[in-house]
Amino acid sequence: MDLIKISKDALPVLNQGGLILYPTDTIWGIGCDATNSDAIKKVYALKNREEKKSLIILVDSIALLEKYVDNPSPELLSFIATAQKPTTAIFKNAINLPSVLINEDGSIAVRIPNDDFCIRLIQQFEKPLVSTSANISGEPSPQNFNEVSGKIKSGVDYIVPHRQDDISKKLPSAIIKLNDKQEVEFIRR
């Protein structure tokens, strides 16, 4: 399958503030333009999720991350650059993102996916993507496309036709942050 064509087909939806259902390096996710507050509000509405619960964003590189995090922690950058498992880091000092996406303490959860499709999509879009599990809040996260509920599938504007036949069980990313001693701490392994 042509990953460039598949990712290009998602771009008009993202550019118009729509929602996509897409495979990541972890589980299937609901995505949108992470710089569009109206699109982000649609994600919260579809998931029945409280807006005070933050969402993860995906970037394709440290360079893109630095456009949305002021003075990112070198310890966190080093950890995610060498992590063997998909790892999301919570960075302080989010910038250039809508307030609806930023946690009350000014932080943002960011991951650089290890997935060719996601990287190509972000590179073509030239902005970060929201990535949140493709489930209604409180329900189990789908481990593959077949486990995504009909409500989620019908609630998005575009379903990416990639890896839908993959029935392997995927898990969410690990989540890390710096504790008060400036040490990397796991929130989720």
From TrEMBL:
One of its GO terms (biological process) is regulation of translational fidelity. Keywords: ATP-binding, Cytoplasm, Nucleotide-binding, Nucleotidyltransferase, Transferase, tRNA processing. InterPro entries: DHBP_synth_RibB-like_a/b_dom, Sua5-like_dom, TC-AMP_synthase_SUA5. Signal peptide: none annotated. It catalyses: L-threonine + hydrogencarbonate + ATP = L-threonylcarbamoyladenylate + diphosphate + H2O. Pfam families: Sua5_yciO_yrdC (PF01300). Its EC number is 2.7.7.87. One of its GO terms (molecular function) is L-threonylcarbamoyladenylate synthase. GO terms for cellular component: cytoplasm. Gene3D superfamilies: DHBP synthase. Residues 4-189 form the YrdC-like domain. It is found in: Cytoplasm. It comes from the Bacteria. Its main location: cytoplasm. Belongs to the SUA5 family. This is L-threonylcarbamoyladenylate synthase. It comes from Hanamia caeni.
